Amino acid sequence: MTTDDFRRNSENFCYRHPDRQSFVLCQRCLRTICPECQTPAPVGVICPECLRDQQKGQSAAQRKAERRWSRPRAASVSDGRPIVTYAIIGVTAFVYLLQLIPGFGGTLEKALMFYAPTLYPALTGMFEPWRLLTGALVHSSFWHLALNMLALLMIGRTLEPLLGRVRFLTLYVLCALGGSVAVTLLSFGTPVVGASGAIFGLFGALLIIGRHLGANIAGIALVLGINLVIGFLPGMNVSWQAHVGGLVTGLIVAFIFTRTRAVRQRGLQIGLLAAVGAVLVALLFVPVLFPALVLAS
């Protein structure tokens, strides 16, 4: 269900397919276009009409050079499939299958799971920063994996076409990082596995973007709230710290996306996303500067 404001705002829908909502603009005319109508350009994508206008203005030499050297115009986004979502699910499932190999799975899990002390050589003699992200690939059981990947599939099928593949992947990675940073600050000595932090970030992003588009987000907010509260219940063995960290990061990144939609704001968007990543990395220095505060957790 969507609100009346959402239905009346044509800018939320592809101008060629009014029944398809999108979050991507043509870089030339700035009209909203769905994945089927997108053609890759040097920066961003363009709509079919702008593509035709561009081709009409080309000289014979330019057309010949384009046919010879450019990539095929069949954009990888033309079918609208959430390829990044499928890829993340595939890689995560593959890692879980490796975990099932006797004599190897346990070693792999210990090498990839997130464990904050391994980021600080002064404590452990090791420096293994990859754990900040690889922890999202490791799961403790089949049901843990299945629930997380089901949530990723459900959200990704909606969110990835709205954002585009690069933005969606950026969002997922930053949310996974945000979850690990929150665990570092709030539960320093606790080993953590699973993609829940990143999933909560996607939920938060869907909340912000849905609100921005005028959609009815009550259902999303309810599901998010219930799952967030579950993490605080005693005996659940759930890392609420990763959930909160991923959620906050997802809210911030989605807010940046909604405020920097225009093509002319592309540089600003990239700069703000880089700043979010830099702040998350900077927070990892808190245990060094204030060890008593963090280690007490």
TrEMBL record:
Which topology term describes how it sits in the membrane?
Multi-pass membrane protein
What's one Pfam family here?
Rhomboid
Q: Where is the Peptidase S54 rhomboid domain?
A: 128-259
InterPro entries attached to this UniProt entry: Peptidase_S54_rhomboid_dom, Rhomboid-like_sf, Rhomboid_protease_S54
Q: An example of a Gene Ontology BP annotation on this entry?
A: proteolysis
| Isomerase among keywords | no
Where do transmembrane segments lie in this chain?
83-105, 136-156, 168-186, 192-210, 217-234, 240-258, 270-294
Q: Name one GO molecular function term.
A: peptidase activity
Broad class of where this protein is predominantly found: membrane
Q: Where in the cell is it found?
A: Membrane
Keywords attached to this Swiss-Prot or TrEMBL record, sorted alphabetically, are: Hydrolase, Membrane, Protease, Transmembrane, Transmembrane helix
Asked whether the UniProt record includes Transmembrane helix among its keywords, one would answer: yes
Which family, according to UniProt? Answer: Belongs to the peptidase S54 family.
Write down what this protein is called.
Rhomboid family intramembrane serine protease
